[in-house]
Amino acid sequence: MKHSHVIMLRMLFWALNIVIAGVILLFLYPAFFMFNAHHGNPGSLKMELLMLLLRSVYYGGLIYILVLLNKTIFRVLKGHTYDNLNLHYIRRIGYLLLLTPVPSLLFASLLMAGSGTRAGMGVMMLLDGLLNYWPYCLSGLGVLIVAVIYKKGIVYRQEQELTI
Which helix or strand (DSSP H or E) is residue 128 part of? Predict the structure, then answer.
């Protein structure tokens, strides 16, 4: 690999580490203030905890995607460019992006089924899950297509090693 590519990959690796730390702090900031400054009624606390659970699922998925991407870049830096483990990481990122709207849709269906007073909020969240998360699904399909191309590269590399 060229020296300039190695430097760019190292910069990307460390930038991803900083982004992962920032996302963790971004998640902890509202959770800290919710528990310190909440003086509402118990029903509102229950809703806040459910929203915190939904937010933690999203942030956890985002952190996991970034960690998988970071692992892939680290393995490429170590010389394992065409490797089945990298393919596994790329596929997992694609599937996670495809599943992005599922927690919001489940939460919306729970709100609609749970009580009549929060059914309107559930419908809004259902529409939000259907209308706003389609770019994640498209990017997940794109990542899965890249994984198929990457697998062909692995097969070509293995065939090339066999002919030598």
Answer: helix 119-131
For 8, the token pair is 């760019």
CB 9 within 8 A of CB 77: yes
- This prediction has a pTM of 0.78
Quickly list DSSP for 139-159. Answer: HHHHHHHHHHHHHHHHHHHHH
Kindly report, residue by residue over 121-162, the tens digit of the pLDDT: 777 777 777 788 888 889 999 999 999 999 999 999 989 888
Please answer whether residues 116 and 123 qualify as being in contact, where contact means their C-beta atoms are separated by less than 8 angstroms: no
Tokens of 122: 């559930």
Residue 3 in tokens: 């020296």
Those residues whose C-beta lies under 8 Å from the C-beta of residue 48, and which sit 6 or more positions away, are 34, 38, 40
The DSSP code for 132 is S
Structure tokens at 16: 């991803």
Report the alpha-carbon angle 25-31-35, nearest 5. Answer: 140
State the pLDDT at residue 34: 60
Residue whose token pair is 């959770």: 31
- The secondary structure element, H or E, covering residue 12 is helix 3-37
